[in-house]
């Protein structure tokens, strides 16, 4: 559930509020929230475009198409949140959680490796454009 849309959306909202209240960084808060909205839209548009079926032998009941992994894409947003908040330890933890979520999608046989990598790449590309220092 850590990579699910509702959970990540709450973390994004809390991080955006923190960026404004603690640091006065309205620009980063807008980039974070706007970037997440773009990521969600791009995940759904890409899934519709590719319409790739999921792997067989799944260990979890899931619906929808496979590419890209929404959980991996949304989880990669944790790295953007850590970047906004700052701190190497938090950034390292965010990368660790993001990787664990991607690995869990592979372990459960609900995604192919390319699905997870595609989800990560999509999110990294969006936030690399929006959160430039």
Tell me about this structure.
With about 130 residues, this protein is mainly alpha-helical. It is built from 5 helices and no strands. Helix 3 (about 70-85) runs parallel beside helix 5. The longest helix has 25 residues, at about 25-50. The radius of gyration is 15 Å and the shape is elongated. The termini are far apart. About 35% of the residues are buried.
Give the helices and strands, then pairings:
Layout: H1 5-23, H2 26-50, H3 70-85, H4 88-107, H5 113-130
Helix pairs in contact: 1-2, 1-3, 2-3, 2-5, 3-4, 3-5
- What is the succession of H and E elements? HHHHH
Ends apart, CA distance between termini: 31 Å
Number of strands: 0
Gross geometry: elongated
**In DSSP terms, counting alpha (H) and pi (I) runs of 4 or more, how many helices?**
5
Stretches where pLDDT is under 50 for at least 5 consecutive residues are none
Helix coverage percent:
over 70%
Query: Which structural class fits the helix and strand makeup?
Result: mainly alpha
Mean pLDDT: 94
Query: What kind of sheet is the major sheet?
Result: none
Indicate the multimeric state: single chain
Rg over alpha carbons: 15 Å
In percent, how much strand structure appears in the residues?
A: under 5%
